[in-house]
Input
Amino acid sequence: MPTMLKIAVQKSGRLQEDSLEMLRECGVRVDTGRDQLKVSASGFPMELFFLRNSDIPQYVHDGVADVAILGQNTVIEKEKDLDEVLPLGFAKCRLSIAVPKGTVYPGVDWLNGKRIATSYPNTLQTFLTKNNIQAEIHEIAGSVEIAPNIGLADAICDLVSSGNTLFMNGLEEKEVLLKSEAAIFVSRRISPEARALLDKLIFRFKSVLAARNNKYLLMNAPNEALPEIINILPGMKSPTVVPLAAPGWSSVHTVISEDRFWEIIDQLKEVGAQGILIIPIQKMIL
Ligand code: AMP
Output
């Protein structure tokens, strides 16, 4: 039997769609229904296990699955020895403590003697211990944000991304315990054969991530503006410059990072670039 890489992904929940989309962009296709626990993929020697988010760290820890796509927050909470191999840039959130709006909150000591509702008791306890706070932790599985309103708790400790849920429930964020995003985690029990497959998959993931973070940029410019334009462009190598049919004009091509995108476009316009085109990149082999 040829080795298959066994990967655990969420059975349902926020991470599932983006995880499967990333795999698809890496050439891994999952054809069968997601209601099955175990599914073989095509396009890569891989078996997918669809599992409950909170159970995944244990499965990977025990080596039942070789790797998983999980939120960093889940791995920290479950305190399992999994190694992170690659952050994936989606499902970005933070674990924060929030209190009812208008609470006079001079600092973390306010939490002394209070009741805090959370689905992340271990991470919260670590934070409280570090800050010498004695508080009562109420572990609840979901809808943590309503706990203060129904008199169950004085504060909550929950995941926040936009802050909208806190706002809607009249809560204010006071402490950030950790920041998290989805990442690939690997089991310490992975076999050398599966590890070799993982390395191939990581190469594909990196190409997809690099493509997502970069854009292909094309523009026309008068030749006298070329030295300034080339100076502005932080391309992978030096930009490609090709003459246009119109005398005295060239077309400039390069790759720029998403982060610096608008700043660079403004500078290019100022020095005379015209007809600027921005094209998404499908894959970027580094
Ligand atoms: P779920 O199974 O849908 O509860 O998925 C939860 C995972 O999604 C968490 O462990 C986080 O890694 C991630 N996540 C990202 N943003 C948020 C958010 N605002 N609220 C809850 N989970 C989030």
